[in-house]
Amino acid sequence: MQLRALLVGAIGLAAAFAQGDVAKPAAPAAAPQAVQNPFKPFDRARFETQVQKLGATPEQVAAFGKQVEEFGLSRAADQLVRAAVPTFGAAVKLQEANDPAAALELTKVLAATTDPLLQAHLRYHLAQVFLDSDDPERSVEVLNDYLQQNINHSALDAEAAFFYSQSLAEIPLPELAVPRFRAFLQWFPEASERFRSAAHQQILELERQQESRLHELADGMKKTTRDLKKRKTDKPIQVDQEGYIEQLQELIEMYEEMEKQSGGPPSGNGPSSAPATESKLPDGEATVGTLNKKPTLADRWGDMKDRDREKIEAEVQNSLPPQYRKMLEQYYKKLGAGTGNR
What we know:
This protein has 342 residues and is mostly helical. The protein has 17 helices and no strands. The chain has helices at residues 2-12, 15-18, 44-53, 58-71, 73-84, 86-96, 102-111, 116-132, 136-149, 157-170, 174-187, 193-210, 213-229, 235-262, 297-303, 306-319, 322-337.
């Protein structure tokens, strides 16, 4: 499949995580446990020096030391970078508000900086925006760059490695996701138990799915649905659709025949005891608030006034370099397709 081949080629360039060699691209299929860990222990002194060059004050750095104990290292470090770079902080506030403009504002700051620490934090948040809007291909694209160019600067390395694996699982590319989840577990033994537990869970689920023809068919249909949302209606997509329909019909006929012969539904066709693959981690402590469903980014995009959507689209065209422009054009086109054309 053309998209799969393209992704495999792009993912192979992220040698830092795929192979442990940040200098040379390599095939992504090698066993991660057979290569050297490219991630170094977090260097707090180096981080504090770097973030002061970005504009952090001595008072902010001192506050960071206290916040590590309260919020944890990765969250405290991210808060410090947000304080040091107000444009980044403002963009993250848009992300937290589930504002469709967040992707544009994060990308504008990313396009304007060459600092690897700031790039790391921007790419981490941008990948989160894409995952939240069911666009794992875009998340892989952004985290590829993180793993190639920005590791060993930020306290977010472990989470970036986890979400890279998660994005591959969501595409879905389980044959690439599983070894990277295993590498995450091997290379980040001190990572939060939430992330480590989720990685173990994902490995078990993905391995079960790989063993099931029905799951493989569902994964293929899921990717084709995503392609159709992006309005990809060329011949390869149509061929995929026809193939999935034929396979599904074969499975239906097989199960019907098994049911006739056994006098009941075939064994193993009940609900799975394994949880579904999700881009979200399990929630931590309960929060106070309504149980109403949170509007998605596509919902928010559809509810915006035409002039506000047009303003964002015009900024994408006029304020971004070509590589970022294309990425966000595809992202906002997908958001528009997800609104139900309202």
